[in-house]
Amino acid sequence: MKRTMIMAAAMAIIASFSVMAEDVPYRTLDEIVESGVVRIGVFSDKAPFGYVDENGEYKGYDVYFADRLAKDLGTEVEYTSLDPASRVEYAATGKVDIVLANFTVTPERAEQVDFALPYMKVALGVVSPDSAVISSVEDLEGKTLIIVKGTTAETYFTQQYPDVKLQKYDAYAEAYNALLDGRGDAFSTDNTEVLAWAQVNPGFTVGIDSLGDLDTIAPAVALGNETLLSWINEEITVLGEENFFHADYEETLAPVYGDAADPESLVVEGGVVE
Hints:
The chain is α/β, with parallel strands linked by helices. Helix content is 39%, strand content 24%. The chain has eleven helices and 13 strands.
């Protein structure tokens, strides 16, 4: 009887480990390589970081990096279009292997996903019409600020300036259309994004080009996916030796920013923030 009970307990433990293994929401590095395809979540409407061009192809700063990851993994890449609020979910549940969607590292997000080393620096910016430039947060009194749900801008203004009236949208394209249509007085998101948008949209100015803390942007994977996380960190370190992200900047961002931004204030090489 005692032997039978011990055997039953052992079998229960083995079964529990099997269930746990099956419940893991992510694919390991070996599984990704063996499948021949890496699944990467990116934006499709946030030029110049992640967007779909006139030929239906994904392009941008994040996509340039993603293409290199797939090349060095020896796999094809399968892109999934994300909106800001879905980034955590898609990484945490393994719907994609990697999120490369201009993803700012925050303590709250780091409790739900694992972030790799950073490849960009960022703060918040505010863009508004030339006819009524918002140059300080005080200028927003009595005004409406457009933001996108699930972004650091939403968190920042909700916590730091709760009296500012927020008009929230699910997607960047919707938010920018609201600004163009005059449904709000200004729009806030990453300064890297509003600087680029203002360059190609005459009549608008980035009156606040740096707001809040300096943050970093990094790839994200499911919590506990240590093999994939370690590989990405090693890859970012090695890519830093060839100044890969400066090359990425020159290819994808410089044509948009021109002299409006300094690459040294944005680019992070080798995962080391200076």
